[in-house]
Amino acid sequence: MEMTPPGYLRPRQTAPLTELEDARIARICPGLGQDVEPAGRTDDVLWGPYEAVKVGFATDPGLRFSASSGGALSALLVHLLQSGKVDAVIQTAASPKVPVANVTVLSKTAADVQAAAGSRYAPSAPLAELAPHLDSDLRFTFVGKPCDVAALRALAAEDPRIGASIPYMLSFFCAGVPSQAGGEAVLTALGTDLQSTESFRYRGNGWPGRATASLKDGTERSMTYHESWGTILSDHAQLRCKICADGTGKAADLVCADAWHCDDKGYPLFEESEGVSLVMARTETGAAIMREAEDAGQIELAPFNLEDLKSIQPGQLGRRRALLARLAGLRLLGRPVPRYRGLHIFAAARRNSFAKNLRNFVGMLRRGLTGRLD
Q1: Beta strand extents in the chain (DSSP E only)
Q2: Res 129 pLDDT > 80
Q3: Contact at 8 Å (CB) between 316 and 241?
Q4: Last residue of some domain: 234, 260, 277?
Q5: Which tens digits make up the pLDDT trace of 296-328?
Q6: Residue span of the structural domain in which 195 resides
Q7: Residue whose C-alpha is closest to residue 74's, from 236, 204, 247
Q8: Residue at 156 is within a domain
Q9: Is 123 helix (H, G, I), strand (E, B) or coil?
């Protein structure tokens, strides 16, 4: 994987591929397509298959504070480690060399998990160094973006080593991957740059937490989540993320998200408060982990009405409903379109207004005709 302008990780081919290798990539890569089977689970048109859904937070106050929402995902990881179910967690953390960038780390203790806590709105490739883990004697939990987990799950269907080495796959709601240039733009807005910055947090240390640059001179500069994501980072998200059918981790055992407080119109409020996480168990394995972590006192959970997710996650809702129109625009432009099966894109589109579908269709055409798809 190599960083390419304007700051996305891209694969570089280092040797010729056989026809069999090429076909295997086509079967596994979620960028080309994704299949989802309900397999007897409740299968919501908008949010996908699941076994249970609740809201909650880490009972460790420090973990709850340092994580991006209520620390539920981090608490689940700590439970898996401390219960002995796994030896390590494969996850993403801040790069020690480029403050706005990411690296893949192995967390083996609760302290390691807390050090990696907090959303990282920048490119990551947690599967890039998978092979050595599959040949070790350790058992892992994997944490990645929904597309990372979809790829790993598809690979597991062909490689039995994955089921043995990585029995648990966790994810989070993802609104798209901004380029590294997006992080640098946040630094610019804060009046600093990479050379002057010692470390950078996109979120955390509160909920939703401020984007905070710690400078080498010992000072800090920060802005709100609404300013960082809403006005800068979201504009740097790559196009492929805008036609993703799975921003909610449908291939994971467990997936977590922000359970935003909402105003009287149902729109999320971003004032700082104690974090609360949505916790969705998509498999029976995930549901068992959720129950065990609660019984162990690592996480506190409460019931949740899935209908409320529409107002809590309006961005995910809008993208799911608009997807078919965007894909139709791409197809009319003669561009490649991902193959989606079992993701209810037609049913989701019927829940959008004609005007919104038309706007997304025309918007995609305009992107193509003005060269912005390139």
Answers
A1: 2-4, 8-10, 33-35, 42-44, 48-50, 52-58, 88-94, 102-107, 140-143, 168-172, 197-201, 211-215, 220-223, 254-258, 277-281, 299-303, 339-341
A2: yes
A3: no
A4: 234
A5: 999 999 999 999 999 899 999 999 999 999 999
A6: 180-234
A7: 204
A8: yes
A9: coil
